[in-house]
Amino acid sequence: MNAMNTVLVFLEQREGVVKKSSIDIWNRVQELAALRPGTAVSALLAGPASSRQLDGSLGGNGVVYHANEAAFKLYNPEHYTRLVVETMKKVAATALFFADTALSRDLAPRLSVRLKASLLTGCAVDDVWGADGGGCCQRAVYSGAAIASFAPTRPLKIYTCTSRPTRSSSAITSGAQASVVVLEPSSRTREELFPLVRRMVMHAGVRDVAEARIIVAGGRGMGSAGSFGLLEELARLLGGAVGASRAVVDEGWRPHAEQIGQTGKTVAPALYLACAISGAPQHLAGIGSAGIVVAINCDPHAPIFDIADYALVGDVHLLLPKLIEEFQEFLKKR
Amino acid sequence: MHIAVCLCQVPDTASVVSFFEGAIDLSRVNGVMNPFDEYALEEAVRIKERFEGSQVTLFCIAPSSAKDMLRKALAMGGDRAFLLSATEPSDPFQTACMLSRAITDYYGEALPDLVFCGKHSTDFQSAQVPLMLAELLGMESVSAIIKLEASHSGIHVEREIEGGIESLELHYPALFSVEKGLNVPRKTTIKAVMEARKKPVDLLPITISESAFVTITSIKPFVKERKCRFLHDPKELVLLLTHEEALF
Predict the structure, then answer these.
(1) Does CATH number 3.20.20.70 belong to domain B2-216?
(2) What is the pLDDT of residues B213-231, one digit of tens each?
């Protein structure tokens, strides 16, 4: 019998490196578990991963179950589903946490049906797992006009969680280290199961907007595709990513992968710089969890200022070069 | 090729979702086809046009007042439509169960070759129904595709992942949820609208016994809490972000 209540965090690797977004979730679940005696937080890592990252860098009170077979190197929905189901049963886990990523959005609904588990998507870890959170997922609905509270009805729960990207890339290093247990290879992973990921093509040198700690986003008021050069320069300088409003993507100035809002991505950066974005509700729906919001717009009555923390009123084409200069000054001095 | 498309109705993005005495009030909301479902339908119709003898069947979860939306979907190229009537599903799992039952009722043992859904509905954005449906139907599936190439032997698709693109291969039957950018949905012509009037729209009574996995315990208005500070120049902004907010 297992007297401990066990929860599992799914650690996602890409090209052998555990993704920072899932380490952020692991850290937060571990921190909050410290307030819940009798709870063990374990992890499941699918696919080969760098030993440097695993040996002693994941702090916590549980076990990291590592399925390091080559079959898990690339995402395969069916192999991954089977692996998670088996591991959930093996450790008698009552909850499963994912970082909200393209992979978990594909995998979690299948798991929910196969495990008959409640699935809550787009949660904050503190809401569903914190002592005061009440176990419900609070999330914006109806293009950000309302906040709904979603409650699980099943004993087994699956959460996909968003978290504000942190500056540090390392896991908790204080306290106990999670031990690593390599899972026995299963003969079934030799089966070729479809859909099959044939290849992954990464955009070189581009930080994805969904994972960026700092986002410099532009709206229609930028005027042309060319003026996004300013935003690229600022994003590069600050180690951030460029985002875009729907109008900009519809104009063909930027790719859809950068679109933020209702028909684009939902982001949670520490700093969101909205340049020449008026702030339609559909856009605001995508930035509800952002930390500091800075708006630069020539219209002092633009709705973006209603949700911004800091504002500069004026022409972006004049203000942005100055802003870049000021940041350069600051970074030089530091 | 037999192609099923799942449709739902959402509030028009221009509509006002308001609150009356603490409860959500959707009475002033205009219902439209979920924007992502338009991409799903367009892709289905394009495949139909390429593979002779194909049939596109629409399965729609919406109130019976959604006939307008169905007419539009038929004008875009659907061949027939079913409006699933039942008690309103209360969560993605129940919705997926309803669709699964409707699809197996209509196609019988032989599943449709392809099922298309929108990536998510723009009102609740759970993005769970398509893949739950795939699991219930026992179909291969890929979510949020941005490219699709169908041949007689299989399907090649691409989807966006963080910082890159994943390309996948599947067999028939398969289910896809569709991301913006896969195609540009066609505008309906007057001729197509006239022809759509002759296409069958049937009510399909579905009963489900499965309980919901998730309940909504409250819906509250979003309250803006931020107080905006207007600054003089970029210098002041950089000072605030670097010192007061300590972001760098």
Answers:
(1) no
(2) 999 999 999 887 778 999 9
